[in-house]
Amino acid sequence: MGKITFYEDKTFQGRCYECSGDCADLHSYFNRCNSVRVDSGCWMLYERPNYLGHQYFLKTGEYPEYQKWMGFNDCIKSCRIIPQQRGGHKIKIYEKEDFRGQMLDVMEDCSAVFDLFKYHDINSCNVLEGHWVFYEQPNYKGRQYYLKPGEYKRFSDWGSQSARVSSFRRVPDVC
């Protein structure tokens, strides 16, 4: 089980709320979120209620201001703990929607998708094992998207507005 604490002000000041599981609507607990302390587990934070909007991956550690977790603003309205997984990781990435076009099986982190796949975009994928985070920029930077096991026929299925994926990593390897 994980534990995360949200603070309204920077450097862990102001009103706070402690959470140990998924929460679809944090709005009633605090007005803004300027710092976060993750005591255990890996978490995805979401800009809007019901796990929508910009996503932010956080592992155990301290984040004294929202820029430290690559936040665009101080708005966090829902969170989800990422389950710990034992075993392998496997994802199939596709050039086109609906699992069409060039396909590649991947079991390791990738800091530069173009170097591996020769495409800048991933339009669909099938997460066969493990939990993954896609990043819009190389070297695990930019907007982030959490993918649990399942089929994603188009990039909007993982919450993105574009097919641009420039890096990705396995979640338990970074927790």
TrEMBL record:
Residues annotated as domain Beta/gamma crystallin 'Greek key': 2-40, 41-83, 89-129, 130-172
Entries under InterPro entries matching the protein: Beta/Gamma-Crystallin, Beta/gamma_crystallin, G_crystallin-like
The organism's place on the tree of life at top rank: Eukaryota
SMART domains reported for this sequence: XTALbg
Any one Gene Ontology BP term: visual perception
GO molecular function, a single term: structural constituent of eye lens
Keyword Repeat among record annotations: yes
Keyword hit for Cell inner membrane: no
Pfam families: Crystall
Keyword line: Eye lens protein, Repeat
Quaternary structure, from the entry: Monomer.
Function: Crystallins are the dominant structural components of the vertebrate eye lens.
Family stated for the protein in its record: Belongs to the beta/gamma-crystallin family.
Name listed for the protein in its UniProt record: Beta/gamma crystallin 'Greek key' domain-containing protein
Lineage: Eukaryota, Metazoa, Chordata, Craniata, Vertebrata
Gene: cryga.4.S
